[in-house]
């Protein structure tokens, strides 16, 4: 009896020692697993932080690219706007020139007095009525224009009586006198026939180099 109890007492410390070793191993394993979890958590946090930094970098690069694209678009819009503005200015200038020349559609060597108005060479006016209408001149305006045109012929300066063949012998500052009495009687009236509806017009030949007009004749034979 005593011997068996002694054996039992001898094995008991070993068992306890084994149990203590197992429990110690468990504690160490628990600590190691906790450390691993902490390391994994730290790695996850570092990974998330790195991903966030990468996203920020990508976003920043994307923002820079967008800004560059916006600048290019603005530059292109600015260039197109400048081109359109220049075209508009050119069109306006062209229209102004055309409108300025629209009053006289005759050839550059030929002029009509009073000048035609509008897109055609027709002369529109209302005789016997001085009321102003849109697009129609009164005959008073045309008479005034003819008066201004004939004024130098009525009061000639440096004019000389000469025959047609004598023109080449005239001084450079002298012209042949044009006698207004040689034109039609109706065109010598103060209103030039505009009041009665039989208007006169004057055809003017501008300076043409080396051109000498032939003398007219009343011979109808």
UniProtKB/TrEMBL annotation:
This protein's source sits in the domain of life called: Eukaryota
The annotated regions of Polar residues compositional bias extend over 1-16
- From the Swiss-Prot or TrEMBL record, state where the protein is found: Membrane
Region called Disordered, residue ranges:
1-52
Gene Ontology molecular function terms on file: ATPase activator activity
Q: Which InterPro entries match?
A: Na/K_ATPase_sub_beta, Na/K_ATPase_sub_beta_sf
**What transmembrane ranges does the database entry give?**
75-98
Alphabetized UniProt keyword annotations: Membrane, Signal-anchor, Transmembrane, Transmembrane helix
* Family classification: Belongs to the X(+)/potassium ATPases subunit beta family.
What protein name is recorded for this chain? Sodium/potassium-dependent ATPase beta-2 subunit-like protein
- Source organism per entry reads Euroglyphus maynei
